[in-house]
Amino acid sequence: MSRNKTIAIIGVGNLGGAIARGLKDSGEYRPQNIILTRRHIDRIAEFGEAGFKIEKDNLKAAAWADLLIITVEPQQMNRLLDELAPAVDVDRHVIISCVTGVSIRQIKDRLQKEATVVRAMPNTGVAVRESMTCLATEGMNGPALRMAEEIFSTVGKTLIIDEEQMAAATALGACGVAFFLRAIRAASQGGIEIGFPADKAMLIAAQTSLGAARLLLENQTHPEAEIDRVTTPRGVTISGLNTMEHQGFSSAMIKGIVTSWEKAFRLYREDKD
Ligand SMILES: NC(=O)C1=CN([C@@H]2O[C@H](COP(=O)(O)OP(=O)(O)OC[C@H]3O[C@@H](n4cnc5c(N)ncnc54)[C@H](O)[C@@H]3O)[C@@H](O)[C@H]2O)C=CC1
Ligand SMILES: O=C(O)[C@@H]1CCC=N1
Known about the structure:
Blueprint: E1 7-10, H1 14-26, E2 34-37, H2 45-49, E3 53-55, H3 58-64, E4 67-70, H4 77-84, E5 94-97, H5 104-111, E6 116-121, E7 131-136, H6 142-153, E8 156-160, H7 166-174, H8 176-193, H9 198-219, H10 223-230, H11 236-246, H12 249-264
């Protein structure tokens, strides 16, 4: 359904670039059918060389594309919506907003149009087609939601949620990449301290975390069930785990996620523009 559509990714920075890479590498979407915009177009020249269309003018991109994937910062959203409004055709365009903290209602109000809007919360795992993307829309937009699901399913897993859960999806799924990367970095630093060179410590830490995640996803088990299989009685794992918990490991992760969730509500302010 979406494969024959033309797609604009508007505001290509870290996330927009990762989505572009993932869609191309999936082999399901042709870069010739994807236009990427950024105000400093020279900074996305590499995508032009990879076969994508690149464009400075958001209005031209919107006129060309059927699907508009928005990946600007929340603080840039009002200005962008004001700019895009004249080009948005409610009978043609589907808007997929990846922008944190901006509701479907706020987008439609700013456009002053009853546009079809889906919210998506992917993560930078899209670049390697391992994103966790949460999607939400309003009741009437089933076909648009299915289109967004099709797009993001080619670059990872998708989950449809209520819009009110979007801030939680941001903290757990989108910020989560950084949280788990920090955990991997900490593990590799531990590995260096006990004798591995940095590159080998990182390989062991990263591949071990990949295996741990796949155990959960493929066995559909709870982490504690898998942990029980590692913790030999009177063994070394339980001693390490208990020391980590005495130092507040789980508590730090939970508190960090709650802090990010709280901030997700504050990022977008109508009065910023
Ligand atoms: N980075 C991530 O892992 C994730 C980010 N998000 C959301 O995606 C959005 C983008 O985040 P990042 O990629 O990290 O930010 P970023 O700052 O790397 O990218 C945003 C890009 O939009 C461009 N831009 C801003 N206004 C523009 C305009 N009017 N026309 C054209 N380009 C414009 C900026 O120059 C920049 O290159 C944010 O709303 C963020 O909350 C959501 C999920 C994950
Ligand atoms: O840090 C941020 O605000 C964005 C939203 C989720 C991931 N990156």
